[in-house]
Every structure is written in C-alpha cells, then in structure tokens.
Specification:
single chain; Farnesyl Diphosphate Synthase; 72% helix; 1% strand
Length: 300
C-alpha cells in the first residue's frame, strides 16, 4: 500500500470507530416519545465523513491528550452538526429530499418530526457533553471550557448566526464580505469548535487556542468553497445528495463570484495557510496534515 492508501484506510477505520462512539451515546428507544429517538438515530447514524469529531480527536492527541474525556464531545459535536443538516433539509430551508444517499429525516418522519428531531439532537448534544463532568470529574475545568466553546460556536455568534444570514440573504446577490461572514459562521465555527475543544481538553493555553481557531477558520473556508464547487461539478450518485441546489435556491457562492478555477485557487491558498499555522504548534500528527489537505481535493 502507498501512503495515500494507508491514510484512506486509516480514515475509514477512524470513521467507523467514531460511529461506534456515537451509537454508545444515543438514548434508548423507549417511552411514548420514542419516535423522536428513532428519528435522532436515523439522522445521526446515516454515515458521513465524521470530519468534526475526527478533527477534534486528532487535535486532542496533537496536544498530548490520551484519555477518553474527548469522546462525549466528539458525540456532541456530531449531534449538533447533524441537527443543522436535518433543519437545512426542511421545506422552509433548502427543501432537499436526499442526504448521504438516502431520504432526509423530514421525508421519512414528516416535517413536524424533522423539526423536533433537530431540536432533540441539539439539546441532547449538551446533555452528552455535560455527562463528561460525571465521567471525568478530574478534568472539570477543561470540560467547562470545552462546553463554553461548544455553546458559543454553535449559537447566534457561530453556526446558527451563519444560518440566519444565509437564509436572510438567499435570493439576493451578496458581496464577498457578507458571504465570508456566512461561511465563517455557518461552516467555520463548528470546525473551530471541534479543533479548539480537542486542544482545550488536552490542556492547550489561550494563545495556542487562538492559533487553533485560525487554523480551523481557514479549513472551514476551504471546505465550504469546495462544497460550492462540488455543487456545480459533482454528481448526485457520488455526493449522495442533489446537486445544483445553490443555483436552484439563488444563492451567491464563491463559484458565482469567482468561477470554479479561481475558487479552487482560493481554497488551496486557505488550506496551505492553515497547514503553515499547524506547523507552529507543538507535537506532530501526519494524519491530521493529510486530512486537512484532503479536504480541498475531495470529490464528495
């Protein structure tokens, strides 16, 4: 096996392991409200790249973390990411019928349960993260820091704020600074949360956390630009979701502003700057570097 094949196999192994961690934190299917638990599980266990929990653990290990305190946060951040996708797919938002190659949550369970499943995943994410206090009381200060990061980066000053601006500006041609704000909040903030939480749980200092935040911000922009490109150049068979939704929903993207070629150049530049900053941090993690590089060249 060459190095690329080794890393791809490693990513597949790590994604499978993350899936097992997620399953271990899901609530039991019981009670009169069990339909919502079923809908949560349907959404959360639909597969996907598991990028955010993967980046979280890689950064945790980069700073010397070796315990399992990161695991409830890995589950929590994927729950929050999944809730955002469930709500994005709703008729009032992007109105998509397929996600990750199968029918979206609201198509299977109804729009009402789609809304509630997203709500449930968001709430249960914080319940899951808070369980770390009982499981790892010796790490209470770091856990509290991690929960504060998770709350801010997923809320009105983070991902949710980005969604608000995105919805508000859909159908309008927005300027680059507005688009950058949408991308920084809607996509970048949760990646920042993932990597900052990993570092914080391993004991990173404030200056190191600021560097990690900048790294993740660059990764987030590159990742979202690549999403823009794939919405134009990809296929539904490979992506597992409809293509052309940006044009259909009259969204301004980096492709509509700059074209595919220039957008690709910007994504690559952002990724390379993120890698440069990564090398200023203590420790080494060759897989993490490969993972970051793979984001701007992904096909799905």
């Amino acid at each position: 096996m060459n190095s690329e094949e080794i890393y791809l196999a490693e990513r597949e192994r790590k994604a499978k392991e993350i899936g097992e961690i997620l399953a271990s934190y899901l609530p039991e299917r019981k009670g009169y409200q069990k339909i919502i638990i079923e809908a949560m599980e349907y959404s959360l266990m639909a597969g996907g790249k598991r990028l955010r929990p993967m980046l979280m653990r890689e950064m945790y290990e980069r700073f010397g973390g070796a315990g399992r305190v990161v695991e409830p946060f890995m589950a929590a951040i994927e729950m929050i990411h999944t809730y955002s996708l469930v709500h994005d797919d709703l008729p009032a938002m992007d109105n998509d019928d397929y996600r990750r190659g199968r029918k979206t949550t609201h198509v299977v369970y109804g729009e009402d349960m789609g809304i509630l499943a997203g709500d449930a995943l968001l709430n249960y994410a914080f319940e899951t993260a808070a369980s770390a206090f009982d499981e790892y009381p010796e790490d209470s200060k770091r856990i509290a820091k991690a929960i504060a990061i998770l709350g801010r980066k997923s809320g009105i000053h983070g991902m949710l704020g980005g969604q608000v601006i995105d919805v508000k500006e859909t159908g309008k041609r927005v300027q680059k600074d507005v688009l950058d704000c949408i991308y920084a909040l809607k996509t970048g903030a949760l990646l920042e949360a993932a990597m900052m939480i990993g570092a914080a749980l391993a004991g990173a200092g404030e200056e190191e956390l600021k560097t990690v935040e900048k790294i993740a911000s660059g990764i987030g922009l590159a990742f979202q630009i690549r999403d823009d490109i794939l919405d134009v150049t990809g296929t539904e068979e490979i992506l597992g979701k409809p293509v052309g939704s940006d044009e259909r929903n009259e969204k301004t993207t980096y492709v509509t502003l700059f074209g595919v070629e220039k957008a690709s150049e910007i994504a690559e530049k952002q990724s390379e700057e993120a890698l440069r900053l990564l090398h200023t941090l203590p420790g080494e993690n060759a897989y993490l570097e490969w993972l970051i590089r793979s984001l701007i060249y992904r096909e799905k």
